[in-house]
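Escalation from tier 1.

The customer reports that the assembly of three entities below gives different structure tokens on two consecutive runs. Tier 1 could not reproduce it. I'm attaching the input and our single run for tier 2 to review.
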Amino acid sequence: MADPALRLQALVKRFGAHAAVDGVDLAVALGEFVTLLGPSGCGKTTTLNLIAGFLAPDSGFIALNGRLVQDLPPFKRDLGMVFQDYALFPHMSVADNVAFGLKMRGVSREETATRVAEALSLVKLDGFDARRPNQLSGGQRQRVALARALVIRPAMLLLDEPLSNLDLKLREEMRGEISALQRRLGIATVFVTHDQDEALTMSDRIAVMSEGRIEQIGTPAEIYERPATRFVASFIGSINIVPAKVAEVPVNGFARLETPAGPAIAHVGSASSGRSVMLTIRPERLKLAEAGGAPAGAVAWSARVVRVVYTGARLEVQLRLADGSEAVAEATNDGRTSLGEGQGIVAWFRPEDAWIIAGA
Amino acid sequence: MRSGPWILLKLVVGVIYVFILGPILITAAVAFNESNRSYFPPRGFSLKWWGEAFAPQWVQPLMFSLELAALTAVVATAIGVPLAFAFQRYEFPGKTLVRTITLGPLILPTLVTGIALLQFLTVIGLGRWLGYWALLIGHVIICLPFSVRTIAISLQAMPGSVENAAAGLGAGPLAVLRYVTFPIIVPGIFAGMAFAFIHSFTDINMSLFIAKPGQRPVTVAIMSFLDFGFAPTLAALSILSLAIPLVLVALLGRFVGIGNFLYQEQGRG
Amino acid sequence: MIAAVQSRPIVPFLLVLLPAAFLLFFFVIPTAFLLSASFIESDGVIMTGVWTTQNYADLLSRPLYRQAILRTFLIGIAVGVIVIVLSYPLAYFLVRTTSPWRGFLIALSLSPLLASVIVRTYGWWVILNREGAVNTALLSIGIIDQPLTLLPSSMAITIGLSHALLPYGVLTIMASLNGLNPNIERAAMSLGAGRIRTFLTVTLPLTWPGIVGGFLLAFAIAISAYATPAILGGPGTQVMATLIRNFMVQALDWALGSAMGAILLVSSIALLLITSALGGRRVG
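Tier 1 run:
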């Protein structure tokens, strides 16, 4: 089997007493798009800087295509990086910016010209050669940065929150474009972001980081629907978390639970043992019905409507459960729902839509 | 929106501008007097004092000042570039101390730095350095903060990721310095050089003590001539010596926005 | 590049070695030497090597010197106040104006920095001397029949120095006004404070550090200025700087010269410490 494009093993980086990266293991397959997702200070940018070689790890290994590189300086690693502030050279034209990496590699003048033109056309900036970075819009600078990183045909692409300085509309457009380009070139990519929408829509796999560690790594669907920890569950999307006790030994992957809101059955998830656990259920999987209207086999709890928030396509229904705790259900705005505040109701879900994680 | 108080403020500001520029314009006008008294408004009209200002008696110190200021600017920049790099890019023991000492001449009275140098050179038997060499040393000391700060500011203003980007694209440390760092800070280096030049050219408090006859800047020459009274020649000379830094700043303006760097300039008069 | 920093700690030392040695030998040691010389008995320029505080006692016991020190500090305070009073409205205008001439007006207000202080002072001599612009004007309209003696005087020195140091006040106060979030003023106005109330209750207090910094900067430069007091003053209006010049160059009494220099030096350092203690902008 071929070596992965990138392998990180037991990577540690300390700043003083604080471990910014605290034992990270990660493998990125050839052509794969992996996102490091987490709040600021979680170590995702430090990890990226370790991969790029701008920081030296205190311990651990970094291998690119099977070659150990942790002792190589950044200019010998052969990576294409796009920086958050783009880091275009302000004193060079667009063409010179893109040509810089080729110049460092001693590529001939003719080949440089051809490859720069190709790269600029790849990012739809034909004819911008002579412009200076300060004559470009944010989106155009972003494209130049991308062209500059790709033109050297790097072993892999590193993207450090490249979309965070763009306005919303442009950000969504660039999201699609970067994804398409990455897929077309088949280049292994590590993308750093704190934006969960970017992570979910662009990635083959997401590594959710917190306090210097990877909490969970998986496809967007796995991360969203099968969170391994409470942190992952609550960092991505909104979720209802109900404390619970395991009442019976799990059978067939499902466990019978006691919760303050009532008895329940749920997927065992990441907590296969232990009595104190957390039951998690996404608001869009929590359904509402008239008393006695829940389908057979579903877990049904009685609840009371506290408030209905209108968000356009959906209605966000805030509920109070039997024990007084709050929960949120999301209903499609089909135009036929009539929910009044204070109204008694049944909140129900299918056992396969609920997921158990380890207790706090 | 621009109401009563704002109009009043504009009036006050107008008066302050008259206060700022008046004396300089009056000095220029006085140089056109017919007689050798500094009348204002000038009586009669003559260019003879301007011609007088080009007599060898004045051209010599003027040229001396130019040479001193140019050499000071070059030396202060040569010392200032490595210092600015060390302060901006590295952490090392004693950094705060070295930095405080480097910027110290900006805060301590130049006059005291001048007499300290006079006394020290005399006592250790280097009294023969007074004049040219002492002036060069003294001026480098008081101009160094200007070049260090200006270069440090341009290093600081450069996003650090630009150098990382170059390294990531395959440029080694020397290539980064040559193709990226240096070209970006060149305007700052020139600006620092210009500030050092101007500060040296306009200095009096340092030169006063360590110059000697035949090796003295034009400011000291004017100062010692003042004992014999004010003549329109001095007015002409003053304006001429104002023109030199003005031209320099105009040239500087072609490299960088002057305003940006003038903002940072906080030396002493 | 951080990686380079970690691997080569020798680099910064190579960078600062020569400059630091230069400054140590020609700036630090001479200044320290001056301070110690002020405590050593001398005969003219020859030091006898005996430790004493007599130099300071001499300075403080002679009324001429005492008055000069007092005059220096009084002029410094007056200059500081005038510089702030004049530069605040100017700086406020320059920061807030939307005029297309703004850049030019800023450059114009700072342009005196390009001129030697002699050029700046010369004009005041022309204006204030017995045959100068003020006397000519007053005589011709008949308010006075004898020219006034405006020079030499402490007032003339104060005016000349205030003029010369105005740009420093403008720079300092512009910096602190620029650091002010304009929305804070808008908030005050939206809460019902008029323009002037807003200025007095919000803008002025928030720019107080700039005012203190500008005052101390002008004060510090004023007390050590030589050219302006030498041109606009006379034997009756000696200040510390002109006395130091006399001691060092004419009377060749280096003991008194270093003691006076030391007083000036220590005052400046004290001012610097006060400035940072008051949280004002760092001077310099």
